[in-house]
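Notes continue from the previous slide.

Worked example: a multi-chain complex. Inputs as given:
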Amino acid sequence: MTDRVSNTLERVGRAAIAGVAEVGFGAVLMAQSVVWAFLGSKRGQPVRISMIFERCMEVGIAAVPIVTLMSITIGMMLAIQGIYTLATFGAEQQVTIGVGISVVREFGPLITGILIAGRTGSSLAARIGTMRINQEVDALEVMGVDPVRFLVTPALIAMLIMVPVLTFWADLIMLAGAGWYISVELGMSMGAYVDNLTEIIVVDDVLHGLGKSVLFGLLITLVGVINGALVEGGAEGVGRMTTRSVVLAISAIIITDMIFAFIATR
Amino acid sequence: MSEAAIMDHPHEAGDREVVIEVRDLVTHYGPREILHSVSLEVYAGETLVIMGGSGSGKTTLLNTLLGLVRPTSGYVRLLGQDLNNIDGVARTKLRQKMGVAFQGGALFTSMNVLQNIMLPLREHTKLDDTTMQIMARLKMEVVNLSGFDDLMPAELSGGMIKRAAFARAIVMDPRVLFCDEPSAGLDPVVASAIDDLIIDLRDAMGMSIVVVTHELESAFKIADRICVLDQGNILMAGTVDEVKASDNERIQNLLNRRTEEEILDPDEYLRRLTAAKD
């Protein structure tokens, strides 16, 4: 019995230490990335623009179709639910208020973050994990090429640029999708819908959403890289850590979203 | 000799320059001690083969020589400099003087063969693309891989991957070349060609080469000296003939591919079988 208790305590203790170590590793990675981004040229190892551009294409441009499809669907879904709920009070015309604010403050950044976590966060973890197993990371190291500068910094910069850009795009498409449904269902013209939106949504709402999306980009990158760097045990290890990366990134996004919303609305 | 003087002039043993000096190296993985006070030297222009069976610690020794594993105590001096105790810029410069051909090639899967070989040049020189391509293709000629510029690593055979890895390792004309199991997993003809390549690199480019292998035939063919590693200890270091003539039982077992006979204690055996799992 005592053995079982001490074993459980030991396991909890080990997990807690591993968790703290991972957070510390993330902080070190972020600090090193910032140092390489600003001081890489001075150290004779600049972060290459071409690599950032390549990552931007992969993270951002290649994700446009799926972000567009999901955004238009969610925009319409919000309009459908909004009209259905407000019909109880006979206030369907007010649907624009709910849709407009919720899209730019919540749904745009959250849905984009979750999609990017599933798409890019997982591929980052898998790529770095596979490179580790194939000794490609060791090869970089012995070549005198810092793996953080070569692999992490371009990905981080690309995410910090592209996640907010995609979020803004998702905002526009969600609002367009909702607008199309509202105009068909309630007979409101698109012009009147847009006028309504511009009255309701203020710049602060948009910045609130975009600010969150920058944090989401940072979180997805760090979680992906940490999990990739911790891969052990071949293909199975890559699969396990890729799944873990997606689950942790989405959880981190949702928790951060709540904390951000709480602080920003005080 | 002061530390600075050592760094500028790698010391010489007799009339031979020492390019790698390993002293009292102890390495741990977690609580387990892998290398027990290992000392050895690699001289300029020689091929030293580190030979040993599975679990002898040869990969750990190689990784420690490469600076990928930090020793618990002792030191490794590469060209007079301790890889673990120099600042970032000096370490990068030192790394440019060494090349490594990993066991699995470690080619970057997202780049084609030419881009892989050009990578060290791209990262460490300010040469234009055309010059880098010419230099990379020259090395591809050396390893008999010309004409395969555009192939991706996934499209290469085992022998071609090894050759590409060699070309990438020598593209900066390093002073020291490390090879991890160069002929492992290759058919005898291709393995022999890789051995010839290592001999050519030593003779034509004057490189010091450290090869880690468990393939006896290959070791005897390419080595100037062999260092036999067993259970984290160096059993002996000497020429091929000296190693062959050794009367050490463990070395003879390794050379004659005999397994150690385990002396079984019945109580210990029973305890092992019935031990509860954690």
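Summary box: Chain B has eleven helices and eleven strands. Confidence is low (pLDDT under 50) at residues 1-10 of chain B.
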